[in-house]
Amino acid sequence: QVQLVESGGGLVQPGGSLRLSCSASGFTLDYYAIGWFRQAPGKEREGVSCISSSDGSTVYADSVKGRFTISRDNAKNTVHLQMNSLKPEDTAVYYCATSLSIHYVCSDYGLRQNSWYTDWGQGTQVTVSS
């Protein structure tokens, strides 16, 4: 059974850091791009970051550039999202998902297309508040 599980969320003060993990079971992440998305209350789900499978290239939403870093550990079948300098507006449920296509190369345009991703995890809550 294909499954993605997010972990690492929590409550953090503004300026703090969190490291999210997206662990896969039932398939190998190596061949797929992995995207991180988030959804705040009353807002649409938005793409945060994506890491390609073939060349490891990465894409970030403008709102997180310079603060978030995505990485993959194929040996552990896991993708991480390191989030630094967190702001209250980063508060949301964070989800990971795989690309529909194997060897998909991430792009700014693709990060805005939720329908290009599948096997969504259940999400992990990130709350940034003092």
Q: Name the helix and strand elements from N-terminus to C-terminus, one letter apiece.
A: EEEEEEEEEHEE
Strand composition percent: over 45%
Rg calc: 13 Å
Q: Helicity, in percent?
A: under 10%
| Structural class by secondary-structure content | mainly beta
Distance between the termini: 40 Å
Shape: globular
Mean pLDDT: 95
Query: How many individual β-strands?
Result: 11
How many H/I helices? 1
Major sheet attributes: 7 strands, mixed
**Regions with little confidence, pLDDT below 50 for 5+ residues:** none
How would you summarize this macromolecular structure in one to three sentences?
This protein has 130 residues and is mainly beta. It is built from 1 helix and 11 strands, in the order E-E-E-E-E-E-E-E-E-H-E-E. The chain has one helix at 108-111; strands spanning 3-7, 10-12, 18-25, 32-39, 46-51, 58-60, 68-73, 78-83, 92-102, 117-118, 124-128.
